[in-house]
Amino acid sequence: MAHVSFEYFPGRSEKAKDQLEETVLLLAEYQPEFQSVTYGAGGSDQQGSFDAVVSMQTSSGVPTASHLTYTGSSKEEIQEFSNKLWEAGIKRIVALRGDPRDCTKELPFSDTPEFVAALKKCHPFEIAVACYPEIHPKAESLDEDLAVLKAKQDAGASIAITQFFFDNSSFYKFVSQARASGITIPIIPGILPIYNFSKVCEMAKSCGTNVPEYIYEAYANGAVCGSTELEIASELLKSQVHDLAYAGYESVHIYTLNRVPLARVASEAFLQAHQELSHQLQVA
């Protein structure tokens, strides 16, 4: 059965919190398999993340995962926060290394696989981890990247969510190579809506994500034809998720940026594509 999932970040101001609550409730109509809430860099605003996770799960009824990083925190602090999540009914975690604010501070775990194993020992969480179709910027090779993902799986991760990408062929190749390396957990494609093309290009450059030439051409041609960035982004999203559906992928994870319009476009296009496929199979 096809389904979507969503990522949000905690609102800092009261206005942002209200907007987040409204967004979560509106997107809940797509019956997401789960939703996740990011965690402050270096463990900052831990309480804000916790409050957002619990509030979202309570108000929407959607299983909600808390992102959790191990940089900037001690093992004791991580265990305390994990216990707090479990006791509040949060059974899912997205386990990440995180970006340390203080590079001189010793990390409590040697790597993410060790972190995943510690979380599983603490409670039987369902743990998601990150993966990188176009290779992590700090990885020396694809083989190294795949070895790390395999270690995360062996430590107890149950799913992997990709960094955002725009070139589906790179994702398909990555999944094929991952399977050949013994990685069997579901690999969920991460989809990033483009609200601001120039900013997304900057983000892509910083994390090693390729922006295909046809996307640049779409924005150039759209500007000539008078199309808005939202209209161009909508068509690109529809094309990307439609292709993923027809390639046999039953899940997409949408980085919502706490906004409804393009998350709605991606959800409807992906679920509709699966309905079309189901109908074609029934007719056949």
The CATH class, by name, is Alpha Beta
The helix fraction, in percent, is 40-55%
**Regions with little confidence, pLDDT below 50 for 5+ residues:** none
- Cα separation of the termini: 19 Å
Secondary-structure element order, N to C? EHEHEHEHEHEHEEHHHEH
Briefly note the CATH topology name. TIM Barrel
The residue-averaged pLDDT reads 93
Radius of gyration, whole Å: 19 Å
How many independent structural domains?
A: 1
Describe the structure.
Helices cover 51% and strands 14% of the residues. The chain has a single domain, classed as TIM Barrel (Alpha-Beta Barrel). The protein has helices at residues 14-27, 46-60, 75-87, 112-122, 142-155, 168-180, 197-207, 213-225, 229-246, 261-283, and strands at 3-8, 35-37, 64-69, 92-96, 126-131, 159-162, 187-188, 190-191, 251-255. The protein has a nine-stranded parallel β-sheet. It has ten helices and nine strands. α1 (14-27) runs parallel beside α2 (46-60), α4 (112-122) runs parallel beside α5 (142-155) and α9 (229-246) runs parallel beside α10. With 284 residues, it is of the alpha/beta class.
